[in-house]
């Protein structure tokens, strides 16, 4: 069964550094998403992406964040200058058959 | 503020007990509704979804959910739980206005612990 994959599983970075989180969506899906979950809090929507552009973004998704589909398979989330409060689990998802399928997540720790 | 609420944060049941997890949402209009499950160490998996039609939806692993529009609720049920149902359960909604983009709004999750 096809799955969404994410790399790395755990990323540790220093405050102010740039990070890129990578995702490989399910191959025939056209809609892609990033969510995050700060420890002890709800899973929060960050951004949706369709046809090579952002279709909706949340208030969290400010100028420090960007997404890209650099080739036919990868979907990336970049955080330009990480803050302590960016520490969270980041989930990628892709949509097919009306539902979103989630990757295993990347745990980002900002020191 | 508009939100999705799961009233039970932590539920402990014995095997063979019946399960009902509450989910309420505060969005008007047409909504799409989902339950996801996250087993220990695994990723979020879809249990079931509701878009329209029969308000009683059957999902995988014997789970079902009932959409009650008048109560803005989408409660998850299972007649007889197993130890393997130990997991975290998330209710999620696509609000009216986000049906094209598919933005999911999640509840805070309910941890279910099933004692053997």
Task: List strands and helices in order, with pairings.
The complex is a heterodimer of chains A (111) and B (116).
Chain A: E1 5-7, E2 10-13, E3 19-24, E4 31-37, E5 43-50, E6 53-57, E7 65-68, E8 75-79, E9 88-96, E10 99-102, E11 106-110
Chain B: E1 4-5, E2 10-14, E3 19-21, E4 24-25, E5 32-38, E6 45-50, E7 56-58, E8 64-68, E9 73-78, E10 87-94, E11 105-106, E12 110-115
Parallel strand pairs in B: 2-12
Antiparallel strand pairs in B: 1-4, 3-9, 5-6, 5-10, 7-8, 8-9, 10-11, 10-12
Walk me through this protein's architecture.
The complex is a heterodimer of chains A (111) and B (116). In chain A, 0% of the residues lie in helices and 54% in strands. With 111 residues, chain A is mostly beta strands. Chain A has a single domain, classed as Sandwich (Immunoglobulin-like), CATH 2.60.40.10. In chain A, the strands form 2 sheets. In chain A, strands 2, 4, 5, 6, 9, 10 and 11 form a 7-stranded mixed β-sheet that branches. Chain A has a 4-stranded antiparallel β-sheet with strand order 1-3-8-7, with no helix packed on it. The N and C termini of chain A lie far apart (37 Å). Chain B is mainly β and 116 residues long. Chain B has a single domain, classed as Sandwich (Immunoglobulin-like). Chain B has no helices and 12 strands. In chain B, a hairpin with a 4-residue loop joins strand 8 (64-68) and strand 9 (73-78). The model of chain B has no long low-confidence stretch (mean pLDDT 94).
